[in-house]
């Protein structure tokens, strides 16, 4: 057991630097996980990190996240195809296994640690007016850092994509791909036509709940919304969250799609491999391979059939631009030879939420670190797969509601709620304020006075932002992070809609069912909003601009669209325009961000994208003839 504690200490130190008082529970829990259950309940074990490479593979997949892991799995189902999967980060560790510790992975070595450019319209309560944008730099990508919420989006999202000139992407087509990967273990869901069992990705509720989430769902009925499966026939309504967890632990795409196939002879996985460019023949305009750096050594590996970028909405456009595919004037300004002029990096979208709404309660029903005995927590989690550590990053409830700006005649809500039995104050400043990057004055004035007090929160988030940002190169150095302009609230209707969502959240929190807990809104002005009447429309707008929270749903930067769409980077088969042998399969292809958490839609995109590749190379004579030449 001493060796296990030393192992855990090294994991914590290598991941987080030093152990803070806010991590008081982690060493005991992780030591016990390591000792009792980790290998026993994960029989597939960890993927093998390839050290020796072939000179040529049929396919090279860049990025092993929510999309890349799926693509690699499905392509290697064709035994003659050799696939190389490249990941810039390392493998998962035991910390990522624990659902409730999701926030502790941010700002670690498993996170790219991106920040947006300073803004005068949003992120005003964050240091230097910059929002933190966590992105997974690890096998499994952001499915290792996220809050595991399984939300498919709205049927009208996909019908809208199809109406923009993308045949095959309507809801009737994509539902099959949502179901293909799903192994739904909720008994009341897994036998209806919208769900399926037996897939590789486990979906279920957390086995532990606070009484606050039941009150949240009941409060929804008080204001006229049904308790429903928001991934089913209709979306508007309230429900206890479903998540990608298995036996009380995180089910990342690496666990779901890579570990079971670790011994396939036609799959090579290389970790800590930073892709610097796609190699493109400037004459034939064909992608022929990639360059990447591993252990300080530069490798150039050829792709016989295709290179597939699944690096995400930040990294995929960065790699494309470094490779000579992007806006001509921008690339030329960095001395990059332009191979294809395309609007790469434009159309950036994200779901922005209003953080900081805090409701105090008199009963000990929230998640507060001082409430729990570490030995009891460890026993519940490790031996019984239950307890507070199984909560989905702390989020328990989800809802979709209409504001006055939404067309209520169709089931296409414009606001989503994340309900959590905790708030910014609940860890007494140990981690949450760091993850958010809150200015010290904001935290000390508002949240420090209620540190560790029982509280809960609703975060309203904007489902269909009208504002668009961009990702651009800071330089042609592939190891320098790109510039990210979130451009939150550029369209004034976005902030108006979010304020209306916050007003509905306040109505929910004021429902009768919460009175049993003594629930009431915490009335403390943000320091930069003191001149405004508390909870007025003007104050709520100020709060949204101050605690502007990314929901980690960056998308749209390699937009999918028909050939006549001047904003499109890839066609409906996800092929990059003007470059053969190159596709993008990840959240960056979304023409408009899906209405809800994006992990499930990205897995769907990857399932469909892999099938498109198979169709092309197995049935299309044009591809088969090119393969022979």
Automatic annotation (TrEMBL):
Residues passing through the membrane, by range: 15-36
Organism superkingdom: Eukaryota
Chain sites annotated for binding FAD: 138, 275
Residue ranges of every copy of the Glucose-methanol-choline oxidoreductase N-terminal domain listed in the record: 136-159, 312-326
Keywords per UniProt: FAD, Flavoprotein, Membrane, Transmembrane, Transmembrane helix
GO molecular function: flavin adenine dinucleotide binding; oxidoreductase activity, acting on CH-OH group of donors
InterPro entries xref list: FAD/NAD-bd_sf, GMC_OxRdtase, GMC_OxRdtase_N, GMC_OxRtase_C
Keyword NAD found: no
Cofactor(s) needed by this chain: FAD
PROSITE patterns from the UniProt entry: GMC_OXRED_1 (PS00623), GMC_OXRED_2 (PS00624)
PANTHER family on file: FI02019P (PTHR11552:SF215), GLUCOSE-METHANOL-CHOLINE GMC OXIDOREDUCTASE (PTHR11552)
Family statement drawn from the similarity comment of this UniProt entry: Belongs to the GMC oxidoreductase family.
Name recorded for this polypeptide: Glucose-methanol-choline oxidoreductase N-terminal domain-containing protein
Organism name: Hermetia illucens (Black soldier fly)
């Amino acid at each position: 057991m001493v060796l296990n504690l030393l192992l855990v200490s090294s994991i914590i130190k290598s991941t987080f630097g030093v152990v803070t008082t806010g991590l008081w529970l982690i060493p005991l829990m992780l030591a016990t996980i390591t000792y009792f259950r980790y290998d026993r309940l994960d029989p597939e074990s960890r993927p093998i990190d390839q050290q020796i490479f072939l000179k040529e593979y049929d396919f090279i997949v860049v990025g092993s996240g929510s999309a890349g892991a799926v693509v690699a799995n499905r392509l290697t189902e064709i035994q003659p195809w050799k696939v190389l999967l490249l990941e810039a980060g390392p493998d998962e560790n035991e910390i990522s296994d624990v659902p409730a510790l999701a926030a502790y992975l941010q700002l670690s070595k498993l996170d790219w640690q991106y920040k947006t450019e300073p803004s005068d319209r949003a992120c005003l309560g964050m240091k230097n007016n910059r929002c933190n944008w966590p992105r997974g730099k690890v096998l499994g990508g952001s499915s290792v850092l996220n809050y595991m919420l399984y939300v498919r989006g709205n049927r009208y999202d996909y019908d809208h994509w199809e109406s923009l000139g993308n045949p095959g992407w309507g809801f009737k087509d994509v539902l099959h791909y949502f179901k293909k990967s799903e192994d739904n273990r909720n008994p009341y869901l897994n036998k209806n036509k919208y769900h399926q069992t037996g897939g590789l990705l486990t979906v279920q509720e957390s086995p532990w709940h606070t009484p606050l989430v039941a009150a949240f769902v009941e409060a929804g009925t008080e204001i006229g919304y049904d308790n429903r499966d928001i991934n089913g026939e209709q979306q508007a309504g309230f429900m206890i969250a479903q998540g990608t967890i298995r036996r009380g632990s995180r089910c990342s795409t690496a666990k779901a799609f890579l570990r079971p196939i670790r011994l396939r002879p036609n799959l090579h996985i290389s970790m800590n491999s930073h892709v610097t460019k796609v190699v493109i023949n400037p004459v034939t305009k064909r992608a022929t391979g990639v360059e990447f750096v591993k252990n300080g050594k530069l490798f150039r590996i050829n792709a016989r059939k295709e290179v597939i970028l699944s690096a995400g909405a930040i990294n995929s456009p960065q790699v494309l631009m470094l490779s000579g595919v992007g806006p001509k004037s921008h690339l030329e300004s960095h001395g990059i030879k332009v191979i294809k002029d395309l609007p790469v990096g434009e159309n950036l979208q994200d779901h922005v939420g209003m953080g900081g709404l805090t409701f105090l309660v008199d009963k000990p029903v929230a998640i507060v670190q001082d409430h729990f005995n570490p030995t009891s927590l460890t026993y519940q989690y490790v031996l019984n797969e239950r307890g507070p550590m199984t909560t989905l990053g702390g989020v328990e409830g989800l809802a979709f509601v209409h504001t006055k700006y939404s067309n209520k005649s169709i089931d296409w809500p414009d606001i989503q709620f994340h309900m959590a039995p905790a708030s910014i104050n609940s860890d007494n400043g140990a981690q949450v304020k760091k993850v958010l990057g809150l200015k010290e004055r904001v935290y000390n004035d508002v949240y420090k006075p209620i540190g560790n007090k029982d509280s809960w929160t609703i975060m309203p988030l904007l489902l269909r932002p009208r504002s668009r940002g961009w990702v651009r190169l800071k330089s042609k150095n592939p190891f320098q992070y790109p510039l990210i302009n979130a451009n939150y609230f550029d369209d004034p209707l976005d902030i108006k809609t979010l304020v209306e969502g916050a007003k509905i959240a306040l109505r929910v929190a004021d429902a009768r069912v919460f009175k049993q807990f003594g629930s009431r809104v915490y009335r403390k002005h943000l320091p930069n909003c003191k001149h405004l009447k508390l909870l007025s429309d003007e104050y709520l707008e100020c709060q949204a601009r101050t605690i502007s929270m990314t929901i980690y749903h960056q998308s749209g930067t390699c937009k999918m669209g028909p050939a006549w769409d001047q904003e499109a980077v890839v066609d409906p088969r996800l092929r990059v325009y003007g470059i053969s042998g190159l596709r993008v399969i990840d959240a960056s292809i979304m023409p408009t961000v899906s209405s809800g958490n994006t992990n499930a839609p990205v897995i769907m995109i990857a399932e469909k994208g892999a099938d498109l590749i198979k169709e092309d190379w197995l049935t299309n004579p044009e591809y088969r003839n090119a393969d022979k030449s």
